[in-house]
Hints:
- The protein contains four helices and 17 strands.
- The protein is mostly beta strands and 415 residues long.
- The protein has a 17-stranded antiparallel beta sheet that branches.
- Strand 11 (269-281) and strand 12 form a beta hairpin.
- It is globular.
Amino acid sequence: MSAKQAILFTSLLFCFFSTIAAQVNDSIPKHKKNIFTLAFYKQPGKDSMVDFVDGIYRVFMPRKTRGYSEDQAVTHFSFVPAVEYSLATGLAVSANASLVVPGKTNFTNASTISGELKYTQNKQIIGQLVSNIWLRNNDYILNTNWSYAKYPQKDFGLGSNSDLSRFDLLDYSYLKMHQSLVRRIFPNFYMGPGIVIDHHWNITDTTTLNKPLTGFTQYGFTSSATSVGISLNLLYDTRKSIVNPVAGSSYLNVIYRNNLTGLGSNQHWQSLIIDARKYFSFPKHSKNILAFWTYDVLTLQGRPPYLHLPATASDVFSNTGRGYIQGRFRGDKWLFAESEYRFGITENGFLGAVVFANVQTVAEQPGKNIQGLRTGYGAGIRIKLNKHSNTNIALDYGFGQGGSHGLFMNLGEVF
């Protein structure tokens, strides 16, 4: 559940120190203390699933078995201090936490709350709180997406034909507050209002050479930008949990946003977001999942501030467009689709893998047509962090066109 949070470096340190700790006590059978065979170890008891915590038990408390007797109705908390990497941030240190609160009955959905605090090699500061809370027997859903960022970044200009070697070096502060409350009107269908606030300030551009051919300057550079509006949200959701949706579940979220100068917006503009996802068992009746995702943002009327235009990885968790840096393609209309195949490697569920492919395109400015398609593809591994909430650590490597490639990390499935 989104964002890019992972623990590659932490995992390596864990393996290193675990091996040292395992060698201290020679009285323990070797197969019981070797962390590297954890992936093939079958946990005894009712369920054979194994996760990262089982590895801690296995190395540091080898005589104690962590069985499956834990109450499945309790709240599960995951905390991951990490050193991570992305194309937009470089190396970063972060603290990531997630809370999964199971429904009170088998017919109510699990609520999730996730938070992140990050400082990066590029001197970026990022804080985010995202929640999806189900209320009163699934009658209501409270969605929260709040974030703050001090965010120097590269901006490659407008359209699908921009050049990776030509970019603006922008710096700004950003506050985002999106809140909605939807009510069930039919089984699995919800509708309700929301308020959306996006505010950028202290925007600067230090670039003098190799600027984009069509970018912020041509669109209309401003040192600040504010968009405040109301939204109407239509939701269809059959997922029981968002951290790792199961086969057969579906998701559709349509958000109409109307930004009004009377509420504080610099300009009056309207947009439509369509976020749709579907999950299939493939082969049929297997645990493997074939997943599809489309995320489309259309400006319906008006002219949004430049930094409020849709762009690569501008979704809630910045997960769209693996293979490309955040903000790689930007425009008045932005269309995206992706498919991913998820399959297990080990029988106990500790290790899995994915292969994925995606495509995106944008319309550069109002009144202009959609430009060429830009594809991405890649593969990754999944490490079970918490078997009770079914939370995975996702480590993916993606490739795009024009020499674009990089490592992408996430806590929970990408979509």
